[in-house]
Known about the structure:
Elements: E1 2-3, H1 10-18, E2 24-27, H2 36-42, E3 54-59, E4 64-69, H3 71-97, H4 112-125, E5 132-137, E6 143-148, H5 150-158, E7 162-167, H6 174-179
Parallel strand pairs: 1-2
Antiparallel strand pairs: 2-7, 3-4, 4-7, 5-6
Helix pairs in contact: 3-4
Amino acid sequence: FIGDREVLSWEHTKLLRENKLDYILAHTPGSCGETHAFLRESKPFLDPNSPAPLFAENPMTFSRYIFRFDPEAARSMRQQREAKLARAEIVINALKKTLNKRGRGKKQALPAHRVYAAIERYLKKRSLLEYYFLNVEGYGKAKLVCHQDEYALAQEELFDGILVLETSDMEMSPESIVEA
């Protein structure tokens, strides 16, 4: 059985194991809690300057995890994320400026909660909300707080270019499992 993230759940994996079915399941790197420590240990050995994909594996009791690191995919993912974040910063700064507009000929200042809602909508629509801390502090003349979440960005960067597969096959080479 070969499945992707759509069929990935503890119940499905348990069912596959109980029925002694061979399987290969693709994980979202960030959702695979069992692999985080191993990935952090392996990451220094997954050279981002390597010309070819690299593999690491972690055999467990019932299955093993295989990581395929593709340096080119990692660079591409990082560049795409950085471009999206740069565009988001431009939009966020423009929206923040509407908090301070006053006087004749200018639009009336927007309250912090409206600017918050506009920024939140923008970030959600572009799947960037998880990379930002966004809050409104105080009452009346509330203050908008919005900045990138460096921890969330660092976690995402950890998984750039990583494909995580879980398999019941303990003998096939990592390359063969990825090709399956």
